[in-house]
Amino acid sequence: MDLVAQIVINTLQIGSVYVLFALGLTLIFGVMKIVNFAHGEFFALAALVVASLMPILAASLGLPHWADFLIALTAATGAVIVLGTLTYWIGFERYLRDLVGSFILSVGLILFLQGVLVEVFTATPRPIEPIVPGTITILGGRITIQRLLVLGLAVAFTAILYMLLQKTKLGKALRAVAEDREAAMLQGIRYRRISFYGWLIGVVMAGLAGALIAPLTVSQPAIGGDYLIKAFIIIIIGGLGSIPGAIFGALLVAFIESLFGYFYDLTMATIVMFVLVMIFLLVRPQGLMGHVER
Amino acid sequence: MKRVRGAIASILILAGAAGNAVAQPKDTIVLGVSVPLSGAAASWGIGTDWAAQQAAKRINETGGIKVGDKTYKVEVRSVDNKYTAGDAMKTAETLISRDGVRIITQSVGTAPAKAIQALTEREGILMFTSAWGRSVKGPKFPMTFTIINTPDEVLAPIYATVKQRHPEAKTVLLLNPNDASGQDTAKDSKKYWEAAGIKVIDSLFFERSTTEFQPIATKIGAQKPDIVDLGGTPPANAGTVLKELNVQGWKGIKVIGAGTGSDVLVRTGGAAADGTYMGLAADFDGPTATEVQRNLNAEAKKVLKESLNVIHMGGYDGVMAAKAGIEAAGSLDTKKIAEVLPKTIFETSYGKSTFGSKAVYGSPQQLLIPIVVTQIQNGKTVEVVRILPDELKQRLAK
Q1: Which of A87, A273, B64, B174 is most buried when burial is the number of CB atoms within 10 A of its CB?
Q2: What is the CATH number of the domain that holds A27?
Q3: Which of residues 34-73 of A touch B (CB under 8 A)?
Q4: Is residue A289 in some structural domain?
Q5: pLDDT digits (tens, 9 = 90+) for B257-274
Q6: Which residues of A touch B237 (CB under 8 A)?
Q7: How many domains does chain A have?
C-alpha cells in the first residue's frame, strides 16, 4: 500500500459526499439567507428510501443491481422533492431571510422528521448489497469499484450544479439573488419563486448525497447528524454561501479526517477541525471564499 | 384575578390529565427497560425490548407474579437511551418519576448503565443490566445485577479459543467506541490478550457517530496485526470496519469480544465478516439452545427479521429475574428483593440459574449462565465452545 495514494483516495471518497451535502446547505443560505439545520433529515430520507427499496426491487424485478439502484435513486430524489416542497410551502416560505425564525423552524423540523423517519423506516440499521463488487488499486492505494462509482457520480452532480449556476437563466437568477436581492428584484427576478428553486436544488443535493452513501454505509434515521456537523465546519471554512468554498472546504475536511485519522485517530481529526473553525471565526469569519455582509 | 384563577385551574386540569395518563392499575407492576432504540446500536435495543415484552406476556399468561395472596400483572415500558449517558439519565428519570418504575429489568450499554446507576442506587431502585464494563459491579452497587456474561467471564475463553485455533498469531490490535463502554472493554481486552500471550500493538477508539471508517481501516491495515479485536463495537459499525479492512487487503483473524448481532454483522460486512469469533453471540437455533430460546428465536425471526443474541435474551431474563426476586422476597420492596436474589435459583431462558461470582466482584451480582464462543461460518453463527460455570454446577447440585 502506498500511504500517500491511500490518503488521497480516502480524502476523495469521503470528500465527494461531503461536497454534495455542503453544496446544498450553502446554496440554501446563499439564496434564502437561512441555515437549514434539518438538512441532515433530507439526506437520511434519501438514504433510507434507497436502503429500503433496493432489497424489494432486487427480490421483485430481477434487474441488475445498478438498474435497481437507479430506480431507488430516482424514488429517493422524488421523496426529497415532495418533502422539500411541503416544508417550504408550510414553513420556510414564511421565514425567508429570517435567521432566528428559520433556526427555530428547522430545529423543530429535525425533531419532527426524526420521529417520522423512525416510525416509517424503524431505527434498525439498513445495510444493502454492493451495487458493483470488487476492489481496485490506483497508484498503490486501494478503493472499491463501488466507491469509485459514487465518486464519479458525485463529481458529475457537482459539475451539473456548477453548469446550472453558471450557464442557465435559473442559475444566473439564483446567483443574482444571492449577490443582491433588491437589485435582482429590480431586474424583474421573482425572489420567492427563485428562493423555492434554490431550496429545492439544495435539498435535492442533500438527497443525492444520501442516496449515494446508502450502498456504502449502514443507513438509519440519525445518519444525517454527523454529516450536518461536518457540513457546518465545511461552510465556515469555505465561506457561507460560496459554491467553490464548499467544494474546497469539503475536500479540506476530508483530508484532515484521512490524515489525522491515520496518524492519530478520528477524535483528534475532529478536534483539529474545530480548532480550525475557531481560528477562522476569529481571523476570517467570512471563510476562505465568502463575502463580508455589509 | 380571574385570569390567575383560570391559569391555576388550567394547570390543575393538565396536571390531572397527565396524572391520569400515567396512573397504573394497582394490580400491575411496571418494569422499565432502557435500551438504544435508534442509532447504530438499535439492533441491540429493539430485540431486547421485544424479548422483555415476551417475558411479560408469558408471565401474565401463566398467572402473573404472586406476592403473598396477591397476584400482579406485569407491564414492560421501554425507553430509548440512544446508547448515551445523557439520554439514559433523562429517560430513566422519566421511567422512575412519571411511570413509577421501581425495577429496571434491562439497561443496555456501560455508559448508559453507569449514568442510570447514579440514580437507581441512590433511590433504591433495582437495576438489571447487560453492561459489559466491570465498573458497574461490586459491593458499592448493591442494587445492580448483571444478566449477561461480561469480560471476566467471556474474554479468557474466547481468546484461549482463538489462540488454540491460530497458534501462529502473535499480535492484536484493539478498536472500540470512544466512551465508557469502549474504554472499559479496551482495558479488559488488553489484560486478557496479554494473559493469553498475545501482544497488543495498538488500541484505537472511534466516536459512535462515525460513518466513514476508511482512515481507521487504513491505519489498522498498515500496522498488519495478526488479530483485530473490535471489542464493544456495535454490529453495524463492526461490519463496516471489516468491509473496509477487506478493501485494505487485510486478511487476519477477526474477533469481537463483545460481539453479539451476527445477523446485522453479516448483512453489513458481507463476506468480510466470515470467520469472525464472537463472545456474546449464540446459536439459539442450535442443539444446545433451550426450548424457550428456540421458540423465542423462531418468533423473533418472524417479527424482527433477525435472530436473537445474548443481549436480546437478557431482556427476557431480566424480567424473569425480577419475577423470581419479587416472589422470593414476598414483597415489592426492592432492597429485600436485592437481598434474596443471590440466594434464589430461578428459571431463565438458559434453564435454572442464579446470581453469583462473589469471588470475582466482591458481591454476588453476576447471573451464572453458559459461556458460549461462536464463529461466523458461511454467514451462519456456529457455536465453537460452551462452558458451564463451576459455581452454577455446584449451586444446582446442592
Answers
A1: B174
A2: 1.10.3470
A3: none
A4: no
A5: 987 767 788 888 989 999
A6: 218
A7: 1
